[in-house]
## 1
Amino acid sequence: MTNKLLLESLQKLIEPSKMLTDTESLEAYGKDWTKIYTPNPMAIVFPKTTEEVQAIVQWANEHKVGLVPSGGRTGLSGAAVATNQEVVVSFDYMNKIIGFNEIDREVICQPGLITEQLQNFAEDNGLYYPVDFASVGSSQIGGNIATNAGGIKVIRYGMTRNWVVGLKVVTGKGDLLDLNKGLIKNATGYDFRNLFIGAEGTLGFIVEATIKLERKPNNLTALVLATPDFESIMSLLHAFQSKLDLTAFEFFSDRCLEKILDRGDIPAPLDDRYPFYALIEFEALTETIKDEALAIFENCMEQGWVVDGVISQSEQQLKNLWRLREDISETIAPFTPYKNDLSVTISKVPSFLADIDEVVKADYPDFDVLWYGHIGDGNLHLNILKPQNLAKEEFFAKCATVNKDVFEIVKKYNGSVSAEHGVGLVKRDYLEYSRSAVEIDYMRSVKAVFDPNNIMNPGKIFK
């Protein structure tokens, strides 16, 4: 059947205005934030109901057409990229909060709900949704769940997985599964809910999620502390974490700070510049807790781990200090960065970073290399910026040549080649550095059960 006839049959399943085939839409909806792949979808469809999603999946099975889920398209792994005439299924119109239970502190929402809208809803009800990262204003809940999004609060609140207490999913067969139903305790066999979290739409599509909320943190206070070397960052983590319940512990290099300050819209936190910085956040619920934080800070200075620092004195200063870390990804985006999102257990971070830094500097002596990340949970972001005089294709090819060396180090440390960005297309060929061949075989078998015709986001995670 020709594409024209295929699309005519697909059009009958949804509202007339909810399918797009124009060049601009195919380009926009066929990609995510990765800039490596050329989008090439057949069409974009916008279901409004679960029944329409089921009908689309059944159509795809009948005609053996791949489906690619699309949320806010803020991913960095190519999981939402359509490169091979797939139909992109956008959840933009399934974007509502459809239930809230104040006693259970649970929200039922559709997958297209913007993350920030869920955060605002929680705040309006005196509660808190703690999964937080730079793209909350455009990312969608379904995409967050499909990639098990992390962010800046993982040290205290964990990943997205920790907040999903129920899912409704349409499997690759077109079946609708209602998983866990909001229960906190449920010991009745396999938990398919957790199987779909982080599966990147390869097993089925999320059509509804039940999310638990938390009490709102009070009087959040942040310190930005300058250190003479990276080893001191780890000493700070141990010193503060042993005395305080931290809500965040982030780090960034001076090269990251330089890029932020060059924009001119955020004040420099300190008078001088130093190699590395830690951003530490905690709840100053009492003056005693704040005094304890200051005492730890003074002790760290005496030990030589800190050479300067600042503590937030207002909500605006707290926001400014956070922007030093949160705005890095957006700020370096025009430089076409090649990103690696790596993790190891926290105790291994210093030697792990040193080993990788040595390889990167040897292979890319003239490239601008930026380090930042969530040290409190062992997650490092390695960013290599493209020189202006180098073509994008040549730049990415050069970066790819060193991946094997970098991922061999990841494997040596029993780490992950993707801490929070997922696998998608970008890390697909490197999965073996974090997963054994036996594990990957089991993953393929699970995929075959839920998606026997391989129509659900085909080619993602593994070929």
Note: The mean pLDDT is 94.
## 2
Amino acid sequence: MQSLAGESVVVIGAGIGGLATACYLADAGADVRVIEKNEQVGGRASRLEKDGFRFDMGPSWYLMPDVFERFFGDFDRTPSDYYELTHLDPHYRLFFKDGDRVDVTPDLERTKAVFDEYEDGAGDALERYLEKSRENYEVGMEHFVYEDRTRLRDFIDPDVARQARGLSLLGSMQGHVEDYFDHPKLQQIMQYTLVFLGGSPTNTPALYNLMSHVDFNLGVWYPDGGIAAVVDSIAQLGRELGVEYDTDRPATAIKGREGAFLVETPEGPVRSDLVVSNADYAHTEQELLQPEQRGYDADYWEKRTYAPSAFLLYLGVEGSVDELAHHTLVLPTDWQDHFDRIFEDPEWPEDPAYYLCVPSKTDDDVAPDGHSALFVLVPIAPGLEDTPETREEYRDRILADIAVNTGVDLRDRIVLEERFCVEDFADRYNSYDGTALGLAHTLRQTALFRPPHRAKGVDGLYFVGGDTTPGIGVPMCLISGELTAEKVLEDYGRPTGR
């Protein structure tokens, strides 16, 4: 057992990764304080409450329940100690813009039958695909996600090579999916999860077919109260372990070194022995550290591939939206143009793919009686010009598109409307170019090619969150918190004698 008793740690940023790291370090005996620039904890997993409506502002899918079980289990607790889960049926609904509609349900045989309607033998192909996905998930999680392999020699070790044999490590998701399915709509169904990884079918490694195991086999769930309730639970666990939280307290600089850090804030400096930054990696390096302390220069960050930003509408509407499921995707029959407008030639998409979340389908507490709460998310390129006029024009375009392609006309029923876009991501979360997620999961930005947890230029400074390993998403950020804490314990932990 390793102890951090006597060590003080400041965690900058109360996103999922920062909250998780704080729990692990406090459990190891450290005196942990989390400072957060915004008015609430959660980072991108913030909550919006207004006029009786409640929305998850960011992540809204509860996937990989095994990761949450493991996290709370590390502290002799379970998720059910804090929140209840509902298994969604359907997992999600897809509307294709040529009039087709597909429900993906927990019943695999039913889903196989749907696949067979599009392509002879596709049901059996789905079963083979999911078996490969399950293998990639089980081996990948155990040997390449929970084990942080940060050096090239970690991957050429014979034991690692043996574990990796058979994994879909190379090639793109597009090529991998084409090996199983010819029909473009089936390919889209198998690739939609790439949106959560911030990539496209052509730039995301085939390894991420493991997400289909997450989707089809592990299921899609809803935590009572939304993802914000999960955030509250992790923060509450931290309090039980002794973590202290300061909201509305942005960090403006990191000074000093291990054993004598000063984290500057408008309310005065916070002193600590060690620092963990859950602020965006580029922001921490370029804005909080002195030039000689930075591990990467501005040119490095400029040349990275970033996950999309998003145009978001949070809507409270009168009446029901029966045609929509809790999770609904609206897809053009050819979505490559949309991805090209994100990664190749950035501009607002003409025929967008987008996502609608209607938590009021499952949770009566997120909207007043007789109303529905929903939000619309359109992935767009980071760094796009984001003016009030553009937002207004695009808002009208999307609401019209929803009416045409789902049969739900929201326009005359909206009683609450809030908008969030590129500039808001940059301002609220200090995200590079207003990206909604951080560094995309391209082949050259996966595993050891992502920035490390240990700061290159400052001993005693660590990073956590979606820009580090294992990457983007609430479960991955939970794991990132564990990995960062392991690094701190390796460097500063002391044997307890037990």
Note: The chain is about 35% helix and 20% strand.
